[in-house]
Amino acid sequence: MMSWVVLALCGAAWQTSGPEMAAPDEEVVVVTADDQEFEGNFLSFDRQSIVVEIGGETRSFPTETVVTVRRRGVQPSPERHPPELELLDGSLLTASRVTSTGDELTLEGGPAVRLIAPTRLVRAIRFARLDDEKTGNQWREILDANDFTGDLLIFQRDERLDWLEGIVGTITDDEVEFTSNGQTRTAPRARIEGVAWYHAAGREFGESPGHLMTRGGDRIAVNSAIVVANEIALQTPCGLEITLPFDELASIRLGNQLVTWLSELEPVTTEWAPLLLNRELIAYQQVLHAPRFDEGPNGEPLRLERRSAGEGWAARQIEYSRGVAAWGGTRMVWSLDGRYGRLTGIAGLPPGVAKGGTVAIVVSGDGRELVREVLESGRPDPIPLDLELGGVRRLTVEIAYHDGRDIGDLVYLCDMKLFRQEED
C-alpha cells in the first residue's frame, strides 16, 4: 500500500511517497541556552514554545530559552550537492533533478521526493558546485545585489562569475531557455552556474525563529512544526506547508539567540585536501577526514589538556560538549549574513595526538584574515580565540599544513561561540 501526502499553499507542494511504516522513535534532545539537556519525544515548535513529552508528561520550553532541538546520533550531511534551490525565505533545498515550465519549478529526489514551487517564491537555483571561497563569494555578491531589474543567467567567464540580465524561461535536464534584448535562446546547462529570479523590493517574510536541518543537509526556514504519527509538518515564513518523514529530521536550530554555537551552524562549504594528492584514494580519504561537530572523529567526547601553576603544571583534561574536530587540510565556510559581531573559543591539539603535529589555524572574514595561530604538539596549552567580526557575511576557518607534513594534524575548536552584532 502506498501513501501520498500533498500539502499546498502559495502555489507550492511537497509530495511524499513510500510504504506505510510504524511510528519511528521521535526522541530528541532539547538543549537550552544555559547548556542543559532534556530528552523526550518531540511534539511541536512555534515562535512561543517548544513542546516535548518527557516521562509521560508534556513539558513546554519558551523558544527564546532553547538553542537547538536535535536527534541524538543524527547529524546533517556536511555537504550539499547541486542542483540547489534557494527560496526567498532563505531555505536551501537540494534535489537530484530540477526542471521548470517557466512559472513553476519541480524538484525531484529531495528529502520528500518531489517539490513543486512557483518561481515567484524562488530566489535562485545553483546548477554547479562552487568549490572555492572566491567563487562562492562572487555568487553571494551577485544574489545580494539590488541593482538589476530582470532575471539572471549566471556563468563563468575568465575565472570569474558573470551574468546576463533578461527572463528565465523553461529549464530542462539539458538546457535553459533565456530571453535577453528581445531574443530567446537556449543555453546548455553544463555551461551555466545557475539562474536567479528578479523580485520587486518590499516582500519581507520576517526572520524565521528557527531552521530545520535534514539528514542530507537541507536547511528549511520554519515558523512552526508539529509531529503527526511518523511525519513532521512544517510551515515556512512565506506560508508554504511542507510534510517530511520524521526520520529526515536531524535538528531544529533556533536563530533568535544572542549567543550561537558555531558547531550548530551548517557550513555552506566544507573541503579537505590531502598534503600529497593520490586521486585513487582521495574520495575515500575525504569521507574519513570530514569535520565532526560536537564530537571527536570516532564519536568520542572533545577533550583538551590544560596546565596550571596551582596544579604543579600537571596536565588536566577538560571535556567540551560543543566544538568542531577538523583535520589538517580542512577549510570550512559559514554564511553569517552580518548577524554576529564577535567569535570566542579555544583551539588545541587533542591529547594523544602524534608528536610532531603542527598546523596553522587561519580565521578569515569576507576574505580578510582575522587571525593566524600555529599549534604544535609540544605546546603546553590550547590557544584562546576572541575575534571581532564586525558583522562579516562569510566566515572561513582553515586548518593549514604548517610544516610540510600531515602527522598528527588534528585540531579541536571548542566552545566556539558567536555573539550577535549589537544594533545601533
Would you give an account of this structure?
The chain is built from two helices and 37 strands. It is mainly β and 424 residues long. Strands 3, 4, 5, 6, 7, 19, 20, 21, 22, 23 and 24 form an eleven-stranded antiparallel β-sheet that branches. Strands 9-8-13-18-14-15-16-17 form an eight-stranded antiparallel β-sheet. Strands 25, 27, 30, 32, 35 and 37 form a six-stranded antiparallel β-sheet that branches. The chain is globular and about 70 Å long. The protein starts with a strand and ends with a strand.
Which structural class fits the helix and strand makeup? mainly beta
Give the radius of gyration: 23 Å
Low-confidence stretches: 1-24, 309-313
Residues in helix, %: under 10%
Assembly category? single chain
For the termini, the CA-CA separation is 58 Å
Q: If helices are DSSP runs of H or I spanning 4 or more residues, what is the number of helices?
A: 2
Q: Quote the average pLDDT.
A: 79
Number of E-type strands: 37
Q: Beta fraction of the residues?
A: over 45%
Largest sheet: 11 strands, antiparallel
Spatial shape: globular
Layout of secondary structure:
Layout: E1 2-9, E2 12-19, E3 27-32, E4 37-45, E5 49-54, E6 57-62, E7 66-70, E8 84-87, E9 92-94, E10 97-100, E11 104-108, E12 114-118, E13 122-126, H1 133-144, E14 151-157, E15 160-171, E16 175-180, E17 183-188, E18 194-196, E19 210-214, E20 219-222, E21 224-228, E22 231-235, E23 241-245, E24 249-254, E25 259-261, E26 269-272, H2 282-288, E27 292-293, E28 302-306, E29 316-320, E30 323-327, E31 330-335, E32 340-348, E33 358-365, E34 368-376, E35 383-388, E36 394-401, E37 410-420
